[in-house]
Here is the input.
Amino acid sequence: MVRKKTMWLKNSSGKQDAMLTFATISFAIVSLNILLSSIQELGLPSGASISFQILDTGTMTAYLAATFGAYVSRKWTDKKYVQSSDESSTEEEVGA
Here is the structure.
């Protein structure tokens, strides 16, 4: 069995980041929905038509808030733990 490596966007630290990928995808989906809803209806050569409606603003807000909130809170938590480990290593160096 061959396991395929998942492709995630890389964050500012150069590490693959699933939450950044989900936040970017959610932003793209909401932006695409807003753009397509401005077209409203697209007629096809066969005579059929495709209509687009904008999502409910509450749904879009919840979708974006959940993904961006998770990304920001994870990034803040990572930064907090990196800072605390840096401070403890500095205290050990001073005490030595």
